[in-house]
Amino acid sequence: MSKHQNSGQITTLSVGTIITGDIVVENDIRIAGTVKGKITTVAHLILEQTGKIEGEIKAKRATLAGRVEGNIEVEETLILESKASLSGDLKTRLLTIEEGAYFNGNSATNSKIENKKIPNSL
After folding, report:
1. 23-25 and 39-41 as β-strands: parallel, antiparallel, unpaired?
2. Strand partners, 78
3. 3-state DSSP call for residue 2?
4. pLDDT per position as a tens digit, 18-31
5. CB 80 within 8 A of CB 63
6. Quick check: pTM over 0.90?
7. What is the 8-class DSSP label of residue 34?
């Protein structure tokens, strides 16, 4: 089970649930089953170790312990827990990858990197 602590309303897809199609929710969503389609939430997406997503994800925050095959865009923080598997590109502000997690793809962060000139020492 994910380390996320529930603090409000949450949509839950239990183990054994299979959904084909897009999902849009305005609250947290916890997925322990399988989704084949795009998932969009303005809150927190929690993917349990038993969960699988085949498709694009857009969320404010995301904690992944299961398997994702698709691109993911997270506005704030993306956490790949030790049992997570992500095959796809990711874009987020902050990224945490725990030891044991699998990631295959490209990553981009929204953090600005300053490009400073190195002073000439001569």
Report:
1. parallel
2. 62, 95
3. coil
4. 999 999 999 999 99
5. no
6. no
7. E
